[in-house]
Amino acid sequence: MSGAASCLALDGVSKRFGSLSVLEEVSFVIGQGERCGIIGPNGAGKSTLFNIIAGELPLTRGAVRFFGGNITRMPAHARARAGLARTFQTTTLFPKLSVIENIVLALQAHSAERFHLLAPRSRYHSRDREARALLDRVGLASRSNELVDALGYGEKRQVEILLAIAQKPKLLLLDEPTAGLAPGDASLVTEMLKRERGDITIVLIEHDMGVVFDVVERLIVLHHGRVVADGTVEAIRGDDNVQEIYLGGKL
Ligand SMILES: Nc1ncnc2c1ncn2[C@@H]1O[C@H](COP(=O)(O)OP(=O)(O)OP(=O)(O)O)[C@@H](O)[C@H]1O
Ligand SMILES: [Mg+2]
Asked: Is the CB–ligand 1 distance for residue 43 below 6 Å?
């Protein structure tokens, strides 16, 4: 981790659903600015892990730390305020509003003051400018005034990720951002994530190894709720145990 501040640390996290053990003693530290992939077969516990990190599910045992602070019992909305953002599989956009309106609303929701009829127009204009700059960054500026409904799947996914980025998160959790996208659309999302430099730490759950190898530098492999490998993309690629888990095909 080369001395970077610890962004996210899991310490012996376990999760049971009744008698079903889904996560067992999961521990790792992700440094600020790191891009880390979480891979593993279906049912390995990846999404459950995200739900625990985001505060949507209580854990059974263990601790979660965010920049050193213990957030194990912190509610999800407080974690979001502290800089933890995530995207979901299902769309969270307003389909009947334009792309730019969706972004402006997200910027507004993030800021402390809510929309107010008597707020100075200059404030709206500055949000509008900020939203346009964000869209420009991902090459979607020309789509600003389109209804979200009119966008393609890949563009919708880009806007969803942009909404998460608009919150200026410290940590961004992405659960299979390219799932269901055609290869051309998946590369729109990949390019967008690769361009996103700076302080955002990214943790990505992904089945598409092309996307994984393109975007992240480190991989954590989950299998039956346990971390079975954790290392550089190159090291994981050459790991016999991981090859076996994927039945020799996918890596
Ligand atoms: N709320 C729940 N109640 C009971 N069991 C659950 C619940 N949520 C998840 N599980 C079980 O936990 C296990 C892990 O599920 P999870 O969704 O975390 O896997 P995953 O690694 O994200 O899989 P996939 O790659 O298919 O998305 C599965 O066996 C699942 O059926
Ligand atoms: Mg999942």
From this structure: yes
Helix axes 153-166, 99-110, angle to 10 degrees: 20
Instruction: Count structural domains, the chain.
Output: 1
Asked if 158 and 140 count as a contact pair (C-beta separation under 8 A), the reply is: yes
Question: Domain span at residue 27?
Answer: 6-245
| Chain segment 134-150, per-residue pLDDT in tens | 899 888 899 999 999 99
Residue at 1 is within a domain: no
Give pLDDT tens digits for 153-179: 888 988 998 888 888 899 999 999 998
What is the CATH number for 211? 3.40.50.300
- Bridge partners (DSSP) listed for residue 150: none
Q: Is 49 a domain residue?
A: yes
What is the best residue among 16, 19, 47, 227 to mutate for testing ligand 1's pocket, by most ligand atoms within 8 Å of CB?
47
Q: What is the pTM of this model?
A: 0.88
User: Is residue 211 included in any domain, yes or no?
Assistant: yes
